[in-house]
Amino acid sequence: MRLADRLRAALDPASDAIGGDAFLSAGLSFTDAAVLVPITDRPEPGVLLTLRRADMRHHAGQVAFPGGRVDPDDADAIAAALREADEEIGLDPALVQVIGTSDRYRTFTGYEIVPVVGIVPPDLALTPHEAEVAAVFEVPLAFLLESANHVRLVHEDDGRSGEYYEIMWGEWRIWGATAAMIVTLSEKLRAFA
Q1: Under a CB-based contact definition with an 8 Å cutoff, are residues 95 and 86 in contact?
Q2: pLDDT 10s per residue in the chain (193 long)?
Q3: What domains appear along the chain, each with residue ranges and CATH number?
């Protein structure tokens, strides 16, 4: 079975599930956002991730999928994810085979994020936006799907404790919302890696 078919079979188009830390996000109103989960089409697929610049106002120095707010001009979350990936890493939307979306994720900072799963050709010459992205790197999909690599940690916020995931791949620390979305995807995709 082709990669696209396996991914499509794993994503539930009727799902309207929402993940996130319900305790910390209770009472918030949410801003719509979308990220692209670019999976490279190679015998051992990988996932492209970005490292945000250390001097960014929000989420400085964090590993993330390319993405951001859904703008009023975006047709939908998929259009927003493709636009943001083009702006952040120079990924031409025409090169992305959109497969579908995964469960929405709510952050305690007030975003409701739609992860858009797409397949991209391997070894693209990407151009990171120099004001936003310090690096673009690829992590093997099989590594991200392996539950043994999903470490659950506890944090304190204003006297309340919550949990988050961390995934270490070499020098790269993937944590927070990005790791949580990976864990959710892994539950859907593990059987198809």
Answers
A1: no
A2: 587 887 888 886 656 667 666 545 566 788 999 999 999 999 999 999 999 875 656 655 689 999 999 999 999 999 999 999 999 999 999 999 999 999 889 887 788 999 999 999 999 999 999 888 889 999 999 999 999 999 988 877 666 667 789 999 998 999 889 999 999 888 887 655 4
A3: 3-192 (3.90.79.10)
Alpha-carbon distance 17 to 136, whole Å?
29
**Those residues with Cβ within 8 angstroms of residue 93's Cβ, 6 or more apart along the chain or in another chain:** 82, 83, 85, 86
Q: How far is CA 124 from the centre of its chain?
A: 19
- Residue owning tokens 């010459």: 125
Length, in residues, of the chain: 193
Spatial separation of the C-alpha atoms in residues 61 and 39, rounded to whole Å:
22
Model confidence, pTM: 0.88
